[in-house]
Amino acid sequence: MPKKTIISCAITGAIHTPTMSPYLPVHPDTIAQQAIDAANAGAAILHLHARNPDNGAPSVDPVHFEDILPRIRAATSAVVNITTGGSPTMTVAQRLPPALTYSPEMCSMNMGSLNFALHPLADRYSEWKEPWEEDYLRASEGNIFRNTFADIRMIAEKLGGAPHNMKFEHECYDVGHIYNLKFCKDQGYFDGPIFLQFVMGVLGGIAAELDNLMFLKQTADKLLGQGYEWSVIGAGAQQMRMAAVGAQMGGHVRVGLEDSLYISRGELATSNAQQVEKIVRILREQGNEPATPDEARQILGLKGADKVNF
């Protein structure tokens, strides 16, 4: 049988702010419903952040997940992947409680520190829905998104082993992060299969260009051999293009309003499901078949939905 393509959908993230799109989900009800709709549209994995429902700000308070996760579990069979990235302004310790509390099948793991900058986005707007937004974006000019080797080892120990036994979405924002992953794998921090996510197009990381995608894939092949699965994120305008090419190269794909607010040039996406529906059409037209959640579990060696804590 041909290899199936796993579609991940990142529902809200911590980059975009409420002013940027009326369709960005920032309340538990809309985050949960958009996640369910994305799963029904074909997403096998739901990558989840939470927001403070009072003002839409990124939140890692487990309380802000408690109205989201059970609703998703009751309505879909999708794999839930909870962030350990939180937002670039948070400490590593602040970012872990949601995964520790709910013990999902998967969580994200950032494979290196970087200058994670959002400040150019602030120049696009003159009025703001919430008072925190402008300062949050402009202050990112001074952000260092910390993910040291000690941090990576700590997260691997706390989440990768018993009792949680989570698998990681290893987010690599630049080629050096793949070398970090290789080192950590050789140290025994992670069991296979490795699931590597190329994050492309974030200011401070590698640009979302096809030559760069080829180089990232070649580097991962050289360092990791055949014992890994990979996916690609194209932030912003390159979302669908990078996903389509990545799938043609044998990779998996990620879409969602965390990564891009648009469905086409100049047109805001009205939901996460709209982006999932578009990538499903693209994949099928070029001969890729989307994986079901259970197929994704088998491909990635996940512990199963019956072993989560929600």
UniProtKB/TrEMBL annotation:
- What are the names of the required cofactors? Zn(2+)
User: InterPro entries in the record, alphabetically?
Assistant: Aldolase_TIM (IPR013785), BKACE (IPR008567)
Q: Which UniProt keywords apply?
A: Metal-binding, Transferase, Zinc
Q: Which Pfam families match?
A: BKACE
| UniProt xrefs under Gene3D superfamilies | Aldolase class I
Q: Give GO terms: molecular function aspect only.
A: 3-keto-5-aminohexanoate cleavage activity; metal ion binding
Q: What is this protein called?
A: 3-keto-5-aminohexanoate cleavage protein
Source species: Actibacterium mucosum KCTC 23349
